[in-house]
Amino acid sequence: MPPATDRLSTGVECDGLVVRYGATVAVDGLSFRAGAGQVLALLGPNGAGKTSTVETLEGYRRASGGSVRVLGLDPIADHRALVPRIGVMLQRGGVYPMLGPSRVLRLFAGYYDDPDDPEHLVELVGLGAVRRTPWRRLSGGEQQRLSLALALVGRPSVVFLDEPTAGVDPEGRLVVRRIVADLRDRGTCVILTTHELSEAERLADQVVIVDHGRKLAEGSPAALAADPDGGSVRFSTDPGIDTASLASAVGGGTVVTEESPGSYRLRPPAGSASPAVVAALAGWLAGRGLAVGDLRTGRSLEEAYLAITGSGGDGGAPDREPPAVRPGGGDGEPERRSRT
Amino acid sequence: MRPLTAQLRAELTMILSNGETLLLTLGIPVLFLLFFSAVHVLPTGTAHPVDFLVPGILALAVMSTAMTALGIGAGFERGYGVLKRLGATPLGRPRLLAAKILSVIGVELLQAVVLVLAGLALGWSPGRGAGALVGAAVAAMVLGTVAFGGIGLLLAGSLKPLVNLAAVNTLFVVLLLLGGMLIPLAKLPGWLAAVARVLPASALADALHASLGLGVAVSTRDWTTLAIWAVAAPAAAARFFRWE
């Protein structure tokens, strides 16, 4: 029994969770925590074990091993005490096909003691124009937004959103982002899953990268994207520039490689300040009358993700990326913690 | 209480605003009553077919609502993930089930009023003029509702939605033909009648023919058959129902 601290009683705790379906291990020793006002994204490819994890937290499945706590409660044993305080958005479905947004929100509002106003929610998720349209005639994105509104109607303390932006158009994504930001500001704990890096980066304070049921890495999007090489700079210009000359111009043991024709990576020695390096780079290019294309320091979360999951190169030099983890290697937790 | 009333209102609205369900629960029974009262093609064995038809079609009405409408609805709700989603709300399964049972009873009351009024208009004399045993009839209909509801939920909770739809409709037709609702069991071949007699449909129809049609006591055999189904079918549904 873990100590029930204030932090735990306001959020979600997943400790060494194992979920098995027969001989298949869907979740294999997953641990993470999120408190009030935090948005945590479980990020991973399809089949990584994200939905199994979330559905265990929601009380739909029993953990085969480890323990989960939501608001300090056991999702199955304390189900009745917990359901009024959580909001759930399933990956798909979950709505009466013949009822429209207004009707189904009014129905769900009837389940709670102090619900949010259904009409307000209809407007909040941008379904005012289709408030009477039966669910089955709504577009995929509209159905997702209705599911999201249903997760909010009980004014929950913890919200679980399983792939909230899957199949949602760009306008709908903005709605989802705004709502998640509002929830965070109101002190709601939000656990969401996504297989889209850009969404994890935009929505979450904390990202847990999961594959094969295991945590591969954890941290803020910025921390995860931080380049292990330090102040690495990527830029593009004409192919075939004199990299040795550039390296000596920046100085101090800098290495410049042309990773693909016209795309370069400049690695100053560890500790070099990026602005000075960029200034030196820009000066050298200007002196030769070369144009600058993409100029970027660090790496994107996408590159970090690909490096961490080992699921493909980033167009750069895969041999140079330190394999942060070895998926499925050993009994120990194969994880790399990078916290801010 | 508020979650239950909200759910009950939604269940009733969905049943009464759904064309297919209305056809099944009211359209078909009323049509059968009107048609077979006017067209004497059924071997009802009564001087006035309506005397046989009203009790039989009341049994049909119970079956259509408690088994077919409930089963098809619950099967699709399960397929659409509605039942799963409701599991994560404060409504809870007991109240969901209670709302479904109450909505079935509400629709059955409506069916009974319509069918009895239509029957009386067609010249039905309850209990052959001696008066019907209403208490026994209501008790039999309650047992039948529980039995048929259990069968409907058993199929809805264990089969895929479209397989469930086909199965429930097929069972509806089979029980309609073998249930003594339109055709007396005496007209069936002996072996088929023997099979039919252990089914809940024939027990309910027989109980209603006795109590409402003839005005005589319901046989112990019918009570026993109905009671066994009323215990076994919900127990099997509870055992095998999968919510997702």
Concise account of the structure shown:
Chain A has helices spanning 50-57, 79-82, 101-109, 118-124, 140-152, 170-185, 197-203, 221-225, 243-250, 274-287, 301-309, and strands spanning 12-21, 24-34, 39-43, 65-70, 86-89, 158-162, 189-194, 206-211, 214-219, 233-236, 255-260, 263-267, 295-297, 336-337. Chain A is of the alpha/beta class and 340 residues long. Chain A has two domains: 8-224, P-loop containing nucleotide triphosphate hydrolases (Rossmann fold); 233-297, Alpha-Beta Plaits, CATH 3.30.70.
Count of discrete structural domains of chain B? 1
Regarding quaternary structure, what we see is heterodimer
Shape of chain A: elongated
Q: What's the total helix number of chain A?
A: 11
Note the run of SSEs of chain B as H and E.
HHHHHHHHHH
Second CATH tier, the architecture of the largest domain in chain A = 3-Layer(aba) Sandwich
Explain what you see:
The complex is a heterodimer of chains A (340) and B (244). Chain A is built from eleven helices and 14 strands. Chain A has helices at residues 50-57, 79-82, 101-109, 118-124, 140-152, 170-185, 197-203, 221-225, 243-250, 274-287, 301-309, and strands spanning 12-21, 24-34, 39-43, 65-70, 86-89, 158-162, 189-194, 206-211, 214-219, 233-236, 255-260, 263-267, 295-297, 336-337. Chain A has a seven-stranded mixed beta sheet, sandwiched between helices. Chain A is elongated. Chain B has one domain (2-240). Helix content of chain B is 77%, strand content 0%. In chain B, helix 2 packs parallel to helix 5 (92-121). Chain B is globular. The chains are: A alpha/beta (340), B mainly alpha (244). At the A-B interface, helix 3 of A face helix 1 and helix 4 of B.
Blueprint of the fold:
The complex is a heterodimer of chains A (340) and B (244).
Chain A: E1 12-21, E2 24-34, E3 39-43, H1 50-57, E4 65-70, H2 79-82, E5 86-89, H3 101-109, H4 118-124, H5 140-152, E6 158-162, H6 170-185, E7 189-194, H7 197-203, E8 206-211, E9 214-219, H8 221-225, E10 233-236, H9 243-250, E11 255-260, E12 263-267, H10 274-287, E13 295-297, H11 301-309, E14 336-337
Parallel strand pairs in A: 3-7, 3-8, 5-6, 6-7, 9-14
Antiparallel strand pairs in A: 1-2, 1-4, 8-9, 10-12, 10-13, 11-12
Chain B: H1 2-16, H2 19-38, H3 49-79, H4 82-86, H5 92-121, H6 134-158, H7 161-178, H8 190-197, H9 200-214, H10 220-240
Helix pairs in contact in B: 1-5, 2-3, 2-5, 3-5, 3-6, 3-7, 3-9, 6-7, 6-9, 6-10, 9-10
